[in-house]
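agent> Task received from the user: take the single chain below, predict its 3D structure, and emit C-alpha cells. No templates, no multimer pairing.
agent> Plan: (1) validate residues, (2) run structure prediction, (3) serialize to C-alpha cells, (4) report one or two observations.
agent> Step 1 OK, no nonstandard residues flagged.
tool_call: predict_structure(input=
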Amino acid sequence: MTVPMRPSPSACPACAAAPAAEALAARALPGAQIALSLPTIHCSACISKIERALNADSRVKSARVNLTLKRASIDAAPEVTAEDMRALVEGLGYEAYELDQGTLNATANDRAGRDLLMRLAVAGFASMNVMLLSVSVWSGAEDATRDMFHWISAAITLPAIAFSGVPFFRNAWAALRNGRLNMDVPIVLAVVLAILTSLWETMLSGEHAYFDAALTLTFFLLAGRYLDHRTRAIARSAAEELTALEVPRAIRLRAGVEEQVNVALLAAGDLILVRPGGRMPVDGVIVEGTSEIDRSLLTGETLPVFAGEGQVVSAGEVNLTGPLTIRATAVGAETSLHRMADLVAIAESGRSRYTSLADSAAKLYAPGVHILAGLSFMGWYLYTWDVRTALNIAAAVLIITCPCALGLAVPAVTTAASGRLFRRGMLIKHETALERLAQVDTVVFDKTGTLTTGMPQLTNLDGLPRAVVEVALALAQGSSHPLAQSITRAARGAGFAAAAVTDITEVPGYGTKGRCNGQEVRLGRASWTGAQALSETATFLKIGDQLPVAFTFADALRPGAAEVVQGLMDQGKRVILISGDTTPAVEALATRLGIPQWMAEALPADKAARVAALTAEGAHVLMVGDGLNDTAALAGAHVSISPATALDAARVASDIVLLGNDLSPIAAACVTAKSATRRIRENFQIATVYNVIAVPLAVAGLCSPLIAALAMSLSSITVSLNALRLR
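)
tool_result: status=success, residues=727
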C-alpha cells in the first residue's frame, strides 16, 4: 500500500512539540510505507531471513521486523505495492497479510507511557530540590531564613504538582462526578490539603510546611503508576486491529475492465476479482472461477475448502489457487469481519467491569481516611478552638495515612510476578490479568494453532515407494496448497529429488497434474483422482492407470499441549475444547488429550456465546486461542492467553501472550497468579498495620513533616520487599 511516510516519533519529549519540523521531514522522505502482519514468525532466525530478503530488494530502502508485534515495517520506493512485498515474504515460506497503515498509526504511539514518565521526572526533580530546602529548615533555620526557604519550596511545588498530579486529579474528578470513590480521591485530598496548609503556615511564618511531603507522595505514586504501565505491552483495541486487517483496496470489474479502487467505494452488487493469494475484501457469492479457500484464520478449519460458482465467501478468507470473480453482497460495516470486530468491542467493554483488588480496597480505605481526618479536625478544634492547629493535624493525618503503600501494593507484585512469568515465556499485558487468572476454574482451548501447530504433517512417508514420492514432490513443489507444501517439506527433508514431470498445471479447486514418462499424473482430491475418500486427512496421487496412492496427514500437537491439559486438570480446573474444525478432527484431538467436553464446527459467535454462557453460570473462564475466530471469545473471557504465533488481533484481544511454542507454562502461570494475589493481599495488610501504628501518632499531633515523610518511605519499601519474594 502507498501512503505518505511519517518519521517515527522522537524519544525526546520536547520534539513532540515541533509538528512543523516533523511535517517538513515527512515531505523530504517520499516513498511507500508498508505494514505486513506475519503471524507465523517465531524466532530471531525468522526475523533475519525476512529482513535480509526485503533489504536485498533494490526497491526497498529499509525493512524491520518486530517479533513482538509479528509485523514488518517496510520503507520502499513509491511504485512498490504491498502485494509486491507480500509475495516476496510468502516466497520465503511465511504467511503475510497487508495491514492498513492509517488505522495502525492512530494507536501506534505509547503517549500514555511518555506522559507518565515526563510527569514522574518533574515530580522527582522538584521533590529533590524541596527536600534539600526542608533539610535546611529541619537543621535549625529560623525566622526570615526559614520563611524564605518555605516560599522557595512553594514556588517549586505549586507548578510541579499542577503538572505532575494531573493523572490523579483527572481520575479523582471522574470518580466524584460519578458519585463514587477510588484510590485517587484521598491522594488528591491529601496533596491539596498539604499544599493549602503549607501555604497558610508559610504566610503566618509557621515552623512546619508540608511541600516536601506533597511532592514525595506524588513522586512515589507516579512511580507505581508508571511501573504498572510498563509491566504490560500497550494493547491497542482488538477491534482496531481487526479493522486494520480489512483489505484496503480491491479490483472492481466494470464492463470487463479491471480498476483498482478503495474498498470504501465498493457497493453491494459490484463484481470483484480476487486473484490467487488475495483476501476477500467483502462478503459475496462466487459467480465465476474455481479455487480453494483458506478459512483457518476466521473459522479454525485446518484444510482449505473447495470454492466454485454459487458458493458464499466472507471478508478475510484467503483465495489459494485460482482467480475468482465474486458479486458483493455485504460491504464495509456489514461484512462478517466487521461484525466480528463489533463482537470484540462488546466483549472488551464487558471485561472493563471487573473490579480490581486496589479498587476494592479504595472503597473501604478512602471513606475511612476522610472520616478520620474530619474527626481529627473537629476534635482538635473543639479542644483548642484554634483552626490553625486543627487544620495542621488533619493535614498530618491525611499525609501519614496517604495510600502510597496501597498505591504500590499492586504494581510492585505484578512487576515481580510478570518478571517471573516472562522468564518462563509469558508476557503479561493487562494490569489485572494476574488477579483474574488466579480466579480461573474453567479453561477453554481452541484447537488449530493453539493445541496443535496448525500445519498438516505427512504421516506415511516411510511406507510409500520412492518413485511415487518423487512424482508427488514434482507436482507439489509449485503449489501453495497446505497439503502440497507439507509433502514438499517432508520429501525434501528426507532427501528425495523431484521426478522429471512436464506440463505441470494446477487445476484450481482440484489439484495439480502433469506428464511423466508419457503418462498423466495427478495429485489432488479423491474424487478427481478416482480414489475413495478416507476418514483422515489425505490427498491422492494417480499415475496413469495405476490405483491412486494416499498421502495421509495429521495436525501435530504443539509442544506441552498434553502436559498443560493434564496440569490444569490436576489443579481441579474444568477443561473444554472448542474449535471451528470438523467434528472428526476435534473429537480425535479431544480423545487424544483426554478432554471430556468439546465442541466442533463452532463459528466465532458460537465461541463467544459459549464463553458468555459459562460466565453466566458463574464460571471464571480462561480462553486460550490464536485466530481471528477466537478474538471475541478471548475478549469476552474472564482472562485470556494467546500464543506468539497468533494473529495480531488475537494477541491484542488477550491479556497474556505466550512467547514460546511450549504451552506447559500456562499451568504454572495459574499457580504464580494465586501466589501473586496472596502477596497483594499481604501488602494491603502491611499498609493497614502501618496505618494502625501511625494514625494514633498523627491524631495526637506527634508527627512532624520529617516523621511523615520517613513513615511513607518505610511503608513503600516494606511493600516492595514483600513483592520481591515472588522472584
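agent> Step 4: summary for the user.
Residues 425-453+557-674 form a domain with the Rossmann fold fold (CATH 3.40.50.1000).
agent> Done.
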